[in-house]
Amino acid sequence: MMEKTWRWFGKKDKITLPMLRQIGVEGIVTALHDIPNGEIWTIEAINALKSYIESYGLRWSVVESLPVCEAIKYGGTEREQLIENYKVSLTNLGKSGIKTVCYNFMPVIDWIRTDLQYLCPDGTSSLYYDRIRFAYFDMKILEREGAEKDYTEEELHKVSELDQVITEKEKDDLIDTIIVKTQGFVNGNIKEGDKEPVILFKRLLTLYKDINRDILRENMCYFLSAIMPVCEEYGVNMCVHPDDPPFQVLGLPRIVTNEEDIAWFLNAVDNPHNGLTFCAGSLSAGEHNDTRELAKKFAKRTHFIHLRSTAAMPGGNFIESSHLAGRGHIIDLIRIFEKENPGLPMRIDHGRMMLGDEDKGYNPGYSFYGRMLALAQVEGMMTVVDDEIKRQMKL
């Protein structure tokens, strides 16, 4: 069955490895978070963390993430050196026996929500995306040139209405949520404590003013082609995370959003070590995607799975739903992957905040009790599927 893994943010994480052993976690998904983006991960640093994880009876299953620097994405002058550094880090990971690397190729911003603690009817809270509030951030706070072209007349009208009633605190919360809190804890471009985050963010956006979808695709292909020889030599599987959410934002090109995008990058660098992180939550946030059909098409080229689910709401909004509900169709995905590519590492993702999680200072989306509940739900689904497989084998 799928390996039950958990994203852990290193020794500073308030959720400890002994806690994870007690709730049935088998593998750890982590990174060398203290090393700045673009610098080499030494074999000594990798093995030190690996040994620490193993001392608690767990294993380092997946790297998430070995960050791809912005200059690689937009093709900056330092791209070649950054790719060489990346290759050395991959070599050291491979020599250390860590064979799965999750990364993303999203320009500037990893994932977007407008509310990190959206209150649900049962008293828990969840991550939420409000399209009008995001449009307000885009047009009124960033003041991005030409932003209005990305929204309908109805949406522009609603933004104008919001502009009449939004408070300064709500504006500050949007900035903190979109630019800082969802980015800074995972080697983001902007971190907690940075002054003038809006100015910094706008500077990052300007790096991509001449980068369209085709150029970003070319740059992704260039990067993957350069690192594949290392992946082949050391047996390292690269698996890109889909764009979250899976549609265009802030005038930036997004190139891992749907079936056509996934097929493109897999075919462009047609190597078994070039694969997909199948994130059911990110993909299901786009109503154009059916996670079950995508899993059937790309299971063989999937190296890592994120099991979470989203529920689409009116007006382009979406919410992180229960792992038992929403558009993720998680039990169907487990059936598909266990048939087509069994035993992959899986981590539950973006659990609800509940039972005091919200007061513990956990990273957004990475609660303890909420993810523990999700893990129990998913483990139950895995057991059902395992029983189904065993019954079919007896027939």
DSSP strand count: 12
Structural class computed from helices and strand pairing: alpha/beta
Number of helices: 14
Main pleated sheet: 8 strands, parallel, barrel
Level-2 CATH architecture of the largest domain: Alpha-Beta Barrel
**Order of strands in the sheet with the most strands?**
1-2-3-4-7-8-9-12
CATH superfamily of the largest domain: Divalent-metal-dependent TIM barrel enzymes
Residue stretches low in confidence (pLDDT < 50, at least 5 long) are: none
The CA-CA distance between the termini, in Å, is 20 Å
CATH fold assignment of the largest domain: TIM Barrel
Strand content: 5-15%
Task: Tally the structural domains.
Answer: 2
Overall pLDDT level: 95
How much is the radius of gyration in Å? 20 Å
Describe this structure in words.
It is globular and about 65 Å long. Strand 5 and strand 6 form a beta hairpin. An eight-stranded parallel barrel has the order 1-2-3-4-7-8-9-12, surrounded by four helices. It has 14 helices and twelve strands. The longest helix is centred in the last third of the chain and has 26 residues. Helix 12 runs parallel beside helix 13. With 395 residues, the protein is of the alpha/beta class. The mean pLDDT is 95. The protein has two domains: 292 residues, Alpha-Beta Barrel (TIM Barrel); 92 residues, no CATH class.
